[in-house]
Amino acid sequence: MRTTILLPLLALAALLAAAPAAGAARVPCPPGVECRTVTVPLDRAGAVPGDVALRVGIVRARRATRPPLVALAGGPGQATVPFTRDFADELGTRARGRDLVTLDTRGTGWSGLVRCRAFELALRASDVVSGTSCAREQGARRAFYTSTDVAADIDAVRRRLGVPRIALYGVSYGTRVALEYARRYPQHTERVILDSPLDEGGSDPFSLATAQAVTRVLRAVCRYGCGGVDSPIGDLRTLAARLREQPLRRWVRDGRSRVRLELTEDDLYSLLVSTDLFVPLMQAFPIVVEEAVEGRYASLIGLMRAADALDELGSLRDFSPGVFAATLCEESPTAWDRHADPATRRAQALAALAAVPDAALGPFSREAALRAGLWPVCGHWPAPARPAPPMPPLPSVPFLLLSGELDLRTPLEGARRLAARLPDARLVREPGWGHDTLSSGSGGCAGRAARQFLAGREPSGCGRLTVRPARAARRARAVALR
After folding, report:
1. CA dihedral for 83, 84, 85, 87, sign (positive or negative)
2. What's the pLDDT tens digit per position in 397-446?
3. What residues does each domain of the chain span?
């Protein structure tokens, strides 16, 4: 699993509930990977002292004939070096004359891990809390974990490698960094692959792109087979409204113990989005919602547990909540004035949300949209510590955009908008798949297109997915009832 957010933010606590703390240990290097350290200043303007020792991983090509490929995982806050071999294998860089390069971006993994202890403790206790304590703990350093800073770090790695140009591959949040690099260093950018790309403007304050995509995605899921459910959108709307009025509370078994489980509208929203990393769970979702509408909740509870296990973020070395909060809150567009007091900010956020048309919210409420967006973590974050640098124009370098038809975190509609704005872009849509198209496996057309693009050939598109609805429905029901 290489991607983190872009689940609704309210899901973050559940994903970190079991994450162990990062201890002092020898810096590991994955098998078959050459590891280096590149030291860069925290603040390139010199006002805030300190350096960051970036951990870099390299898998060498059999014979390097093309610029190296820098691969970036998701987040913000996810380490990338642990996935170096995976990226090299999936993208076929060794056979295509490219070294594969990764780095744990500043503040993640073994690159000066950012700790926000109070924030981490609250998240492990499954409390969705403001990131304000994290801002206080980081102090002035919080301003230097933006995509612009990471892009400059990548260019420092390029210079250390001694190459005039690089190619970039980013997945999920990594697409934001890859695009930032290409904007700011077009002369050093050979080509770029954006897998499950964010909208060009960054994270939506209310996750409206996700909400708007729900109806299209669930209808597509049921064309592939979802157990014969007649009205997936109507059932979801009904259950969301029911849970909004009265959360479901049940005692369930957890090993030898019994634990009390509460299911809210927010939990239902998070569950739906989390299934876009594993399509059989997404196919099961309409089934378990239909059963819940009929008063049977066992399968819904089971699906929640299965989704949580698949979307586990691991230890703090794997994912840094501090970088997550700092990056998101320092650089994302908001629906409120960041210099205003907390009460004014909230009033501005609610006013902006009230102006959103009902159709843009999908099957969920305005309250769920507020909690699924930036407000829970960033609503009380201090005003940005430094102004954002001017944004250069979109570069005229070759881009390949890969987007899953069933992606809810970074929906297909956003990829289409970005592709239309880029001067030189191709878009490949992976049918029957969700977020992170390379994880669709060797049979996926997105992976084939990426390898063709890296070899300098025109990427082929995707045909229609061959679907056997009866088999898909049986598989979905088996998942739902497991």
Report:
1. positive
2. 999 999 999 999 999 999 999 999 999 999 999 999 999 998 876 567 99
3. 9-203+389-454
